[in-house]
Amino acid sequence: METAPPLLRFDGVTCRFGEVTAVGGVTCDIAAGCFVAMVGASGSGKSTLLKTVNTLVEPTGGRVLFAGEDVSELPPARLRRRVGYVFQGIGLFPHFSVAENIAIGPRLAGEKLAPARIAELLELVELDPAYSARMPDELSGGQRQRVGVARALAGEPELLIMDEPFGALDPVTRDALGRKVRELHGRLGLTTVMVTHDMAEALLLADRVVVMDKGAMVADATPHALLAGEGGAVAQRLVSVPREQAERLAAMELRG
Amino acid sequence: MQEIWDILPGLGDKLAAHVVLAASAIALAMLIALPMAVWAGRSRTVSRIALSLASLVQTIPALALLALFFPLLLSLRSVFGEGLPTLGFLPALMALTLYALLPILRNAVTAQANLDEGVLEAADGVGMTKWQKLVLVEAPLSAPFIMAGIRTASVWTIGAATLATTIGQPSLGDPIFAGLQTQNWALVLAGCLASAGLALAADNLLWVIEVGLARRKRWMTYGGMAIVVLGILAALWGQRSDETERPIVIASKQFSEQYILAQLIGSRLEAAGYTVEYRDGLGSAVVHSAVASSSVDISVDYTGTIWANFLKRADNPGREAMYETIREWEARQNGVKVLGRLGFENAYAFAMRSDRAQELGVTSLADLVGKGGALTVGGDPEFFERPEWLAVRDAYGLRFGKTRNFAPTFMYDALRSGEADVISAYTSDGRIAADKLVVLADPKAALPSYDALLLLSPRIAEDPGVAAALQPLLGAITVEAMREANFAVDREDAGKLTPKQAAEQLRKRVEIGK
Question: Are the C-beta atoms of residues A193 and A210 closer than 8 Å to each other?
Fold first, then answer.
């Protein structure tokens, strides 16, 4: 893993909105095949940094390299077809059926996605292929996000970026979909970057956790290292929350 | 009731013209408003300016907006040449288009502003270009709201299009205006029923399309659109004209005498083998310019009107001098030929109920001095702005307690009901005799003369056939004959005639008189 060339490189990326500095000079390499979680409190700049990858946000300084190319020099429409994007708002097109939603990326590229491929994608996210004819407003929140993930995977992306992908889901659905995405990451050989404010989710799913605070990267470590106490004060404060919750739950169980 | 059903089938031409006008205005408004809404969605400044301007247009009464395009187009002739039409379809289309902009624009802008943020982010996220995002996401999601705006605009436009009559564009307003002036209520109701029916039909059809768009029922959307298109095509087909040469267009202002004389002139020309067309119910100010610009060919106007409004003179040199000056001025200034005088005057005069006049001891304007403070004077909508009123007021030093405006038809009702004590009547009006009114004498000759003139536009000024056909009318219509014809049209009992019937009677009288 260490020897693989980075698929994604943040090179001194800075994002300023007027007076506010959302991201202040982040440099970080992400190797192909890696599952990286970016964790931080609200306003720490993690979402902004993520959106510079598919140029939904344009950095005011520094650059983002995707497979060695500066993303600001790639045509945005073509770049976004190579980068699967899943976000909290999901954003299924309400006037398209499930099948049409999943097929939109390839359709924009001029290809027609075969029904068999749509069925396969639905099966990947554990939805019955019969759902392909339904409209988004006939689905539950969890089912919608599954379709959102299938849509992101339809174009066979090299990179999957996710912005609080499970934030609006109930805990059971959230856990199941998290595991599913992690499994697909391994099975499809993806490179994944997930933004979340939930350290437990990050520790359980990622190979590597990047902690953001006030626009800066304050920790970059494996889940094991973080649990072993590395990564500094901000990271440890975030780790302490799920750890204490787990300890309290264990204690309750012991007391019976 | 039966009368209305008899009139309705005859309104086919007007309905077709109405549909074509309203549909064109809506289509043009959509062509302007929709791209503007897209632009407004990307710039708050554009959005604010566009919506303010469209709202401003709505505050102008539709009637005024329509009338304003006449002088505007007239002045644009210096740029586009004499071929630019100043009356009829073009100004009506422009005014109605402006009127239709607001609801379409406002709904389209609101629809865009209310689109779900997540959906827009997803459109960018899946790699749509700006154009793809507009076509695949923004437009279909906004469509039902935009359609609702188009529906509102259609109902407004179909209603306002009835006013196009006043600037010479045939529409369902023709029977309404003609009926109002001649107190033919069946005609008014038939026009209103037809335009209301059209508005309702359009509203329901567009509603079907809107629901089809909102619920994604293609058969509703396309079915509704197909019927709309068929309706417009049928109207266009109904409007096709097979004539090659422009007929002679006879204008009339908005009162009975004008309708009758237009019919009389038309019947003489038709007898001489000409095809004629009527532009009824034009605004008084519009008619003169319309003749001068050959937008219409023949009108009847009055010496006093031209004297004050177009020569801008306030003096009174006497009847003959006024006529000769106007004749010379029209030929020199406008190329308009004053063919001659019809023989009667339709002057302003002050009239009172005879019992009231007796009670107050009034027989002339001079008698009103000192008594006016307790009296109400009624005039037509333009009267109190006219130089005649100022001349009379200043010559006698008249002061009235109240001045009120009435439509000409209703002035006599006001006098009868006591809402006015004195009115500005017209000397050729049949109701003076019928209501046994007292016309107050004018010892100081403050009121100018109002000889009825026959005006020919520059286009037909030198046509010997036209002059020959109309020659017998000159000097042939006495004020008594005109009063009788006017009263036949204005009365509301069984003896009521249409302007065409009254014109026929008048024609016989004129021909016997010769």
Answer: no
